[in-house]
Design goal:
Elements (H helix, E strand, L loop, with lengths): L3 E9 L5 E10 L4 E5 L6 H9 L6 E6 L2 E2 L10 E4 L11 H11 L4 H14 L15 H14 L4 E5 L7 H18 L2 E6 L2 H7 L2 E6 L2 E6 L1 H6 L4 H6 L6 E8 L3 E4 L2 E4 L10 E6 L5 E3 L8 E10 L3 E8 L2 E8 L9 E5 L6 E4 L15
Parallel strand pairs: 3-8, 3-9, 6-7, 7-8
Antiparallel strand pairs: 1-2, 1-4, 4-5, 9-10, 11-12, 11-14, 12-13, 14-20, 15-19, 16-17, 16-19, 17-18
This protein binds adenosine-5'-diphosphate and magnesium ion.
């Protein structure tokens, strides 16, 4: 099974930067795995260390259960697509795609057959005799993918492969890539700084910060239950509300002049916490509601397409809540915010780590 096992991995550059700083993770066979994090957090370095292009300073990398930590890149069975595609400008598409096979002295007739088959899989038919300069960005990106796939690696490593495409093409390429990965069933590690891309594509996501793993989980888990405020801030198109509150009695937290239900677990009454609740998980009503709630007045509403992001001022604190566009309240309206207990997360005020054992998210 061509999975990847990473244990205690560190990559330290000669200048002393610990770009990968003690990582443990396992990528399952056939999995589409995303490495997500802000620029400079060590994603490319980790990918290059898996590929053998950077030497590991500590720890081990196993591919298909074999320890490859000291193996040269060409012998690891990995294929990598670089952020800038790294196509050879003087070669045709066909020559680019089959270059890794040429290096391995595969016969020309076989190479031609592979170029034809792969170009079909990647919608590059009719372009085999062109040079990269005669292709669109999206086509170049697919040639780079075709070259990686034609090399028959056990593992596909993709470094921000969609980041050079414009927004529209990026969406198309995303769908294409997801389908291709499922069709081929090849273990894939995909690097991106774009949380929406990671949520859309990946089976599981590793969120990185400063060379360390901050959370590993399915897109649903990292969205609904960020393990810390770093991940909470990083994931989601509309930022999570992170508010200072204190634990109240009866399974609730006091925030912004009101309260919300929360599984407070062993956190003592009166303790100060950071309360996290996504705008999507708050409900906005006009008029009284029963149970814990927060009252405020509407400041502004932003159109998100089918939804509106409404900013509500509650006792001097701004809270974001999304509502269906047809329910958008007028500025100045008095509204009440509620949430279900499972959607209200409590974080340690100092460390930012998720507190208490709270119920798993629904859905
Ligand atoms: P990402 O891909 O997440 O943007 P990188 O892996 O490129 O991050 O970089 C991680 C850290 O390592 C950054 O602080 C970066 O400046 C540093 N770094 C990257 N490449 C080198 C290098 N060749 N020599 C020294 N430091 C490097
Ligand atoms: Mg990078």
């Amino acid at each position: 099974m061509a999975g990847i096992d990473i244990e205690g991995l560190a990559t330290v550059y000669p200048n002393g930067v610990r770009a990968v700083d003690g990582l443990d993770l396992t990528v399952a066979h056939g999995e589409f795995f995303a490495l997500l994090g802000p620029s400079g957090c060590g994603k490319t370095t980790l990918l290059r260390t898996i590929a053998g292009l950077e030497p590991a300073s500590e720890g081990t990398v196993r591919i298909d259960s074999a320890d490859v930590t000291r193996l040269e890149p060409g012998k690891r069975g990995v294929a990598m697509v670089f952020q800038d595609y790294a196509l050879f400008p003087h070669m045709t598409v066909s020559e680019n795609i089959t270059y890794p096979l040429k290096v391995r002295r595969v016969a020309p007739a076989t190479r031609t057959a592979v170029a034809e088959r792969t170009s079909g899989e990647l919608s590059l038919q009719g372009l085999l005799e062109r040079r990269p300069g005669q292709l669109s960005g999206g086509q170049q990106q697919r040639v780079a993918l075709a070259r990686a796939i034609a090399s028959k690696g056990k593992v596909l490593l993709l470094d921000e492969p969609l980041s050079n495409l414009d927004a529209r093409l990026r969406l198309e390429a995303r769908t294409f890539l997801k389908k291709l990965q499922k069709d081929l069933g090849i273990t894939t590690v995909f690097v991106t700084h774009d949380q929406a891309e990671a949520l859309a594509l990946a089976d599981r996501i590793a969120v990185m910060q400063s060379g360390k793993l901050r959370q590993l989980g399915s897109p649903r888990e990292v969205f609904a239950r960020p393990a810390n405020t770093f991940v909470a801030n990083f994931i989601g198109s509309t930022p999570m509300n992170l508010l200072t509150g204190s634990v109240a009695s009866g399974g609730s937290v006091s925030i912004a002049g009101g309260s919300l239900p929360a599984a407070t677990g062993s956190v003592p009454v009166g303790a100060e916490v950071t309360v996290g609740v996504r705008p999507e998980y708050l409900t906005l009503s006009i008029g009284d509601v029963s149970g814990p709630s927060i009252r405020g007045s509407v400041v502004v509403a932003e159109n998100l397409g089918t939804q509106s992001l409404v900013s509500v001022e509650c006792d001097g604190t701004l809270i974001g809540v999304t509502v269906p566009e047809e329910d958008e309240p007028d500025p100045g309206a008095t509204v009440v915010l509620t949430a279900s207990e499972s959607r209200v997360l409590l974080y340690d005020k100092e460390s930012g780590e998720l507190l208490a054992r709270q119920p798993a998210p629904v859905g």
